[in-house]
Sequence to fold (317 residues):
Amino acid sequence: MSKPVCVVRMNETKAFEEALTRAGLIDRFELHCLKIGQPIPDDLAARTDIFVGSGPGSYLKRMPRLRWIQAHTAGVDPWLASPDLDTAVTLCCARGSHRMSMPENILGALFHLTKPYMAIALDQRESRWTRRMSETLAGKTLGILGLGAVGQEVARKATALDMRVIGTKRTPVPLPHVARIYAQDQTDEVLGASDFVVLLLPSTPATENSINQDRLRAMKPTAWLLNFARGALIVDADLIAAVQSKTIAGAVLDVFREEPLPATHPFWKTTGILVVPHLGGGHPGRTAAVAEIFADNARRFLAGEPLNAVVDRARGY
Fold:
């Protein structure tokens, strides 16, 4: 029997070879490693059963045997939007590959908002001693919209800081470290009770533009919005207006509708909005983490078992 043909098209392909080797599977596949942007020869594309990559392309039309795509990212919006993605192909995301790094970056944002270290660093440039006050996170309420794997890890860490955590989940079942879980149609209750609101929702037709003028008005005027999910969740103009009018205290934004964020975008110049260059999920070991997800699914693929992190195309994640 011929081996399944697998094309890995990433700039760091060694991690995928190593993960298959550790799993004892390297000899079970015909593996081809290409760099991003490197052309996929027609004869190889025609034989490809499995594709690992960071984004879709016209090459998909040349892969009639393709059965499984392992995306390099947790979000798969570009894949689902691709007209070249066959509905018969199983699409898996890299859910869980940033379960540790993103919560740390979210905590970093919370500390940035409550601890004056940036101002202190600027004072030091001028050899200027300025007494400043640090706010406590203990006793504050953190609202998490989207209590998936990342949201639950944020909740665990926030609870250790004596914060009260509430949030929304599509199926509102009890979770550790979360004081109260609300259904998605109760989002305004979470917004109104929170001192900090973290967006961790997927981008779907139901969530796009969901953080609009009305939702922002539901928040406390002292509350901060942190978006580490998808830029399309927020109506940009409504957020700018809410920050400028002091409807909310401000926002930390790690994701945007267009990236890199154009230099002409008003987010850059809006006092109270911190632009973060998509720092959230990245970390030095992320490619290795995705490779481990791939290797586990490769074992399942060979055994005819259900794959992990399969994308539900109807839900969009």
